[in-house]
Amino acid sequence: MLDRRKFYINGKWTNPSKKNDFEIINPSNEESYAIISLGANEDVDKSVQAAKVAFETWKKTSKEEKVKLLKNLLEIYKKRFNEMAKAISNEMGAPIDWATEIQTGSGQAHLEDFILRLKEFKFEEHFDSKSNNYICYEPIGVCGLITPWNWPINQIALKVVPALATGCTMILKPSEIAPISGMLFAEMIDEAGFPPGVFNLINGDGAGVGTYISSHPNIDMISFTGSTRAGRLISKNAADTIKRVCLELGGKGGNIVFADSYPNAVRDGIRNVMSNSGQSCDAPTRMLVEKSIYKRAVNEAVDEANKIKVDIGSNKGDHIGPVISKIQYNKIIDLIKSGVSEGATLAAGGPEKPNGLKKGYFIKPTIFTDVTNNMRIAKEEIFGPVLSIIPFEKEEDAIKIVNDTSYGLGNYLQTNDKEKAKRVAKALRSGCVYINGKGADPGTPFGGYRQSGNGREGGVWGLEEYLEVKTVTGWK
Ligand code: NAD
């Protein structure tokens, strides 16, 4: 078992101020993978103080120096790529190929993209040619970064890299359930040569360290990715100190499959929702199918779900892994049972364990048909390999059903009609709309409408989250 009972504060791996051990369980086998410490307020205070002092120098450090250090970090990340993939697979159960290519790959892609954006970013610009006014972009200060377990290094890179790039200093609190990838990233930052205090890492849970960070008077901004429940609490706790709070929260994406969609649209939709064992905030968990192709779509969906293999994270291949924890497992099984009791048709999967997998938090790829949008399975974020299929008759009905949610993160639509695609994309109330299976390019903004949050991460928008905007008159 890995012993990782240290925090990274002011450029050193430091012992926690109090003993508070916490075990990291590998969800593929329910065995201990690592032991960490949960921090106390004193640990946070120490790291905030270090970040506050470091900010005075880091905010003035040149763009060239920051680019150089970020490039060092990128090289180290590439060198330790497989170590990162293994850590992610062990801590959150992602199959090793997925953890390598997709999860660890996403961290590298964000690093590469932010280096490009930083090089191009103008921190000072003339307001307009007739004016003597200038607009300056300045780092906001000390940031508290709180991240989830489901895409651990993706979320960390989306926060830490732009915070570093803009001249902020920071305290990262990774998810206490999957913190090892974050600790590895801290080692890389250390090796890259960032000055002490610029980046600090404290482990801890939401009720303890998370709450203390959110209300800390010397933290200027919180960037949070996680559940809408925690986002609400963080906003309340940050209110007294008027911090900037950037929230990236849950989702309940819709995927509208029109009758004129490309041949593999339904099968691709199934693969998409089941990937990462359904544990993605922008997973298309409600499939809206035009009535004229409903029967065919259901047959294809069930066939595809039954083809998806479920297996342990360390095995190679394109199977899906377990869900993260016993708590999540129980919650998902409860929601599957609610689907049955509320009258949806269980067409694939179900609450029983997949064959041959006695240990581990494994769930069969599950499909409900004849779902109505008022059922719990259509309303709540399940965060497991579970899809609800809902029939629709007209385009406006589909739009209404997809928008009938408190969330608004990622929606999807499939049609060969370009005009219809644009029309529907505009009508959907979400931060991202993916048409015909096309993914978002690096550097595009990611974030939600309504209760999916208020932040935008990635690219220039991701840099701007960490910047104050200042007007200076009489500059010229
Ligand atoms: P979570 O909200 O339980 O925990 C996320 C992080 O917040 C953890 O580090 C946790 O310790 C901390 N936390 C929990 N309660 C807190 C509190 N009261 N104050 C401060 N910190 C607190 O979420 P999770 O289960 O780790 O992650 C899954 C959720 O994350 C899902 O809802 C998913 O949709 C969402 N998510 C959103 C995005 C996005 O970009 N919108 C991306 C990934 C995940």
Present the secondary structure layout.
Layout (H helix, E strand, L loop, with lengths): L1 E3 L2 E3 L2 E3 L6 E6 L4 E7 L3 H18 L4 H17 L1 H12 L3 H25 L3 E3 L7 E6 L2 E5 L5 H15 L2 E5 L6 H13 L6 E3 L4 H10 L5 E5 L2 H12 L4 E5 L5 E4 L7 H10 L11 E5 L3 H14 L18 H16 L3 E4 L17 E4 L6 H4 L6 E7 L2 H9 L6 E5 L3 H10 L4 E4 L23 H6 L2 E6 L4
Parallel strand pairs: 1-5, 8-9, 8-11, 9-10, 11-12, 13-14, 13-18, 14-17, 16-17, 18-19
Antiparallel strand pairs: 2-3, 4-5, 6-7, 7-20, 15-16
Helix pairs in contact: 2-4, 2-6, 3-4, 3-6, 4-5, 7-8, 9-10
The protein binds nicotinamide-adenine-dinucleotide (NAD).
Poorly predicted runs: none
Separation, N- and C-terminal Cα atoms: 62 Å
Alpha-carbon Rg, integer: 23 Å
Structural class: alpha/beta
**Global morphology:** globular
**Compounds present?**
nicotinamide-adenine-dinucleotide
Quaternary structure of the protein: single chain
As laid out across the biggest beta sheet, the strand order is 15-16-17-14-13-18-19
Number of helices: 15
Mean pLDDT: 97
The portion of residues forming beta strands comes to 15-25%
The counted number of beta strands is: 20
